[in-house]
Amino acid sequence: MATFLRVMNICLFSLLAVVAHANQPSKRPPPTVEIQAVGQQTLAQQLSALAVLKAQESIMLKPEVAGRVTAINFNEGQVVKEKQLLIQLDDDLLKAELATYQASLDLAQTEYQRYQALVKEQQVSVLDYERKKAELAQIKASMALVQAKIRQKQIRAPFTGVIGLRQFSIGDVLQANQNLVRLNKMNALKAEIKIPETHSQSVFVKQTVNLQVDGLANLVLKGQVAAIEPSLDANTRALIVRVNIPQVDSRVRDGMTARASFVLGQQQAIIVPEQALVAQGGKFVVFVFNNNEVKATPVEVGQRQVGQVVINKGLQVGDRVVVSGQNKLSKPQMPVKAIPVQ
Question: Helical H runs in 121-269?
Fold first, then answer.
């Protein structure tokens, strides 16, 4: 009986030991993260602002005088040449008046030439000669006036450019100063940019400007500051800058917007991949790897680029930061298994 009890006790102790070992928690391996060394690059210091692209020259064609349209010598959207006749207004009455003056001019010139010969022979008075001379000059002046009125009936292109959509038809009776059609000179562009008052001293004439067109992906135009408004805008307190853009893409339209970047200089900056940043409490931290563990380090973020960000404060060149696996880090400081970023 005693032997049986001893055997039972041994079995019971063995069972308790197995159960205790089974209930002991297993130790998890540290999380695996990808790290990358912090580098330094030379970056261009830039000032960004919104720009509105405009045609180098743009005008709304309007008639100087009223009249009926008798001819339209252009197609909408085509390129027209400088001084090309675009619109003809009715000028029949003026041409008839000009023909009348032309007939009077021929007679006046004949009489003037005759009086010019007679006054030399003293057969007519000098006063009569001067009257004929004045009559001839008066007729020429009247003809010049009619010719000017005829030119007002002709609407010509003031420069070579692209004509827009017309707001009239042949046979319409136009009024003076009525909007007819827009003409844009698109072989070059200009941009008007408003610079905040705090950066007004950073912009100067002949400064290089890059313009990323919003409506056209991957299109960057090169420009140069041509002029600066001497006074600030009364409403926005901004400085208005005009930029000339000599080379233009045919897809660019007057009125498009672009993001202008003024090159202010160069600086050495610490760069990290954008995915290394972790937002915490309205600020950014980066997990820095050292001695087989990582530690959340607050950083001050600067200029952003595509996929990268400048760190103004908080990191040094050579620091190794976590760029993948931050979701596995549940504590501000904890051991990890680090592997180089792929």
Answer: 126-152
pTM to 2 decimals? Answer: 0.62
Report the SS3 class of residue 301. strand
Sort 226 into a burial class: Cβ within 10 Å, 0-12 / 13-18 / 19+: middle
Per DSSP, the residues of 210-243 read: EEEETTSTT-EEEEEEEEE-SS--TTT-EEEEEE
User: What pLDDT digit, counting tens, does each position of 106-145 carry?
Assistant: 888 888 788 778 878 777 787 877 888 898 899 899 999 9
pLDDT tens-digit readout, 31-83: 888 888 888 887 767 788 899 999 999 999 999 999 999 999 999 999 999 99
Amino acid at 56: Q
Among candidate residues 285, 288, 278, 294, the one with its CA nearest the CA of residue 335: 294
Report whether 337 contacts 35 (CB < 8 A): no
Q: What is the DSSP letter of 248?
A: -
